[in-house]
Amino acid sequence: MKVRIADLHHEWRALWPLLWPLLEPALRRSPDRPMPDGPPACVDAERWLLERLQAHDTQLWAVFDGGTPIAAVVTAIQDGGAERRCLLWLIGGRRARDWADGFLALVEGWARALGCTALWGSGRRGWARVVEPRGFRRIPDLDGQPAWQRRIR
Questions:
Q1: What is residue 78's three-state secondary structure?
Q2: Global pTM?
Q3: Which of 50, 57, 95, 96 is the most buried (most CB within 10 A)?
């Protein structure tokens, strides 16, 4: 299983049609917006997310099994007062238990190099089975959904 960041400057045209269907359900369910200008209902969500990715407000990661993408993740670096954290914002695809360890190792090193002190995210209660064995702990809910965080410094 290979985990790598998708370079939008060079690969997004080829990858996006394969990754968007994985991300769309997560975007539609997401209460947490990395930017205050989340897409209103009348806005094309795909276009809005592409604009965020192209503006480097968010980062696109792809998980491949061989040459086939099986998952996609969108992260966002958030500065909050004295702390910088990496939001694991949108996660879509399948077989998360198979690739979570490799992905988290990669994103943790990347986030730490950017000065982040934690990885965090929120979502369905079922995510507890994936994130809690990997060192994430519950933090206050976000818009009624459970949230987890793992310190990386």
A1: strand
A2: 0.88
A3: 96
CB neighbour class for 117 (10 Å; exposed up to 12, middle 13-18, buried from 19): middle
Domain extents for the chain? Answer: 2-151
Domain 2-151, CATH homologous superfamily name and number: Gcn5-related N-acetyltransferase (GNAT) (3.40.630.30)
- CA gap 48, 141 in Å, rounded: 25
Distance (Å, whole) CA 114 – CA 142: 24
79 touches 111 (CB < 8 A): no
pLDDT in tens, 74-131: 999 999 888 999 999 999 999 999 999 999 999 999 999 999 999 999 998 999 999 9
Structure token pair of residue 96? 């998360």
